[in-house]
User: Fold this.
Amino acid sequence: MKPFVYETMYILRADLSEEQTNQAIAKYQTLLEEQGAYDLEIQLRGKRRLAYEINKHRDGIYVQMNYQGPATQIAVLEKAMRIDEEVIRYMTIKQEIQKTAPESEEGSPE
Assistant:
């Protein structure tokens, strides 16, 4: 089985205080760690204008999480985000880890 890196980008409501934003980030970080995620990196991208209005919101607080772990954690994370009123939108992508192998194939017969 090949290891994968997951990246989840989610947008929180812009009207949240800094404390509420940090609580939401900590909640999802803890959720992922409980599900077996590791190498967890979280980047708070800050408040930005949305490209288009989503549920009457024009601005949002962007958060990016990169992590590795079992694929089952994605369903748990996204279900929690779907029912959370603080999350406007979320998306998870999967990237395959590229093993850096030596590319010296000088001795191969042709």
Observations:
- The chain has a mean pLDDT of 86.
- The CA atoms of residues 44 and 87 lie 14 Å apart.
- The helical segments are 18-34, 72-83.
